[in-house]
Amino acid sequence: MPKLPDDCASMAEVRAGVDATDRELIELLARRFGYMRAAARIKPQRDGVRDEPRKKAVIDAACADAEARQLPRDGIGQMWETLVESSIAYELAEWDRLNA
């Protein structure tokens, strides 16, 4: 288990923590994309995949959470824009695969 950020005393410890965190993020993204597969399976119409009000709500919530944690709101917003658009593209591909 890597050290927490405030406990790191060397760049090796920082890098170990970053690498471990990246692995955890990928695990979480795998779960998130699993929900996209579920959505593709559940949604009856392809045009229901893109939901702009939901997209905005998800990005706004991430930005608000980032701000509350004193993280860069704009940077998190950009990341979530990319994440949500990637999720939509993935869900569309899954929908097409399942309904071919």
From TrEMBL:
Xref: InterPro entries: Chorismate_II_sf, Chorismate_mutase-related, CM_dom_sf, CM_II_prokaryot, Isochorismate_pyruvate-lyase
Q: Where does substrate bind?
A: 15, 32, 43, 91
Under SMART domains, the record lists:
CM_2 (SM00830)
State the UniProt keywords alphabetically.
Isomerase
Its domain of life reads: Bacteria
Keyword Cell division present in the record's keywords: the answer is no
Kindly report, in one word, the top-level EC class recorded for this enzyme. Answer: isomerase
Where does the Chorismate mutase domain start and stop, copy by copy? 5-95
**One Gene Ontology term from the biological process aspect of the record:** chorismate metabolic process
PANTHER family named among the record's database cross-references = CHORISMATE MUTASE
Protein name (record): chorismate mutase
Upper taxonomic lineage: Bacteria, Pseudomonadati, Pseudomonadota, Alphaproteobacteria, Sphingomonadales
